[in-house]
Design a protein that fits this description.
Distance between the termini: 62 Å
Oligomer: single chain
Structural class: alpha+beta
Shape: globular
């Protein structure tokens, strides 16, 4: 009976994803590892062992700075396994986490880091919208209004894109942060598109942040359909509206290294096209 109950109890593993965070934890006497590579190998073995027992396991990102704050606030000794366990249980409720499904540690680590970056972006954009307050002229909540417009824009854009697998990237310069959101959608033509609700919320929040503040930004849509080259369309965000880019501008944006500015060879079998017009809701703020 105890084994049966154990199989129905979920497990959470806190993971120090990068060498810098790992190094910060080695100052604690009770932390048993001194080599990050060895540590990751041991975590990988632990995850495979739990999976072999049929146990559901979630991997959560362990942040040493948040751990220190957690212990200080709770009056806990950070140099104990119990404190680390309590913190892991705490962050699993609201922090970045990934369900373990047998993926190797080399895949799990970047997946978890990407999840953490996405969540931080979503949190930042959400707070930004919440802090905008009400419009002095009409009394509407500016953040909520921008979110509704962004939702409508996304819906109409996917409808106009038609059938196919759509990969969208929205980039917004919001105050001192460069926000990026990614969304995958399957347009089925004649029916609602297949979307992940969490991805939609993240994407719409980032787009709304740009709309609300009239921030510069852009959106790129890549569509894959059977028996046809991939199509890439692009728009720039200007004063709360998406304005179509020309085919040349799309090509230039897609074939330029974002970090260095150097040209990148175009992908074979990709058709770079101008952004197509679609019905957008009017902006009030």
């Amino acid at each position: 009976m105890r084994r049966t109950l154990r199989r129905e109890t979920p497990h959470t593993v806190g993971l120090l994803a990068d060498a810098y965070d790992f190094e910060a934890m080695t100052r604690y006497r009770t932390f048993a590892f001194d080599d990050h590579t060895v540590y990751l190998r041991q975590v990988d073995g632990l995850l495979r062992s739990l999976a072999a027992q049929g146990l559901h396991t979630t991997v959560a990102l362990f942040d040493p700075e948040e751990f220190t704050e957690f212990c200080t606030a709770g009056g806990l000794d950070p140099d104990t396994a119990e404190s680390r366990t309590r913190f892991t249980a705490e962050i699993a409720a609201g922090g970045a986490r990934v369900a373990y499904a047998g993926q190797p540690i080399d895949s799990l680590v970047p997946e978890l880091i990407n999840k953490a970056v996405r969540q931080a972006t979503w949190d930042y954009a959400t707070l930004l919208l919440a802090d905008l307050g009400e419009c002095a002229e009409c009394g509407q909540d500016i953040g909520r209004s921008a979110f509704e417009r962004a939702s409508a824009i996304l819906t109409r854009l996917i409808e106009a894109a038609g059938p196919g697998l759509h990969h969208m990237v929205c980039s917004v310069q919001a105050q001192q942060e460069h926000l990026i959101a990614v969304l995958h959608a399957e347009g089925r033509g004649g029916g609602p598109a297949l979307l992940d609700e969490t991805d939609v919320a993240e994407f719409v929040t980032v787009l709304a942040a740009g709309i609300a503040q009239h921030s510069p930004g852009g959106l790129v849509l890549r569509t894959t359909a059977p028996d046809a080259p991939d199509r890439v369309h692009g728009w720039r965000l200007h004063e709360g509206r998406l304005l179509p880019l020309t085919a040349g501008e799309v090509f230039s944006a897609y074939c330029t290294d974002a970090d260095t500015g150097d040209p990148v060879a175009p992908e074979p079998g990709v058709d770079y096209r101008a952004g197509f017009p679609f019905d957008q809701p009017t902006t009030d703020h």
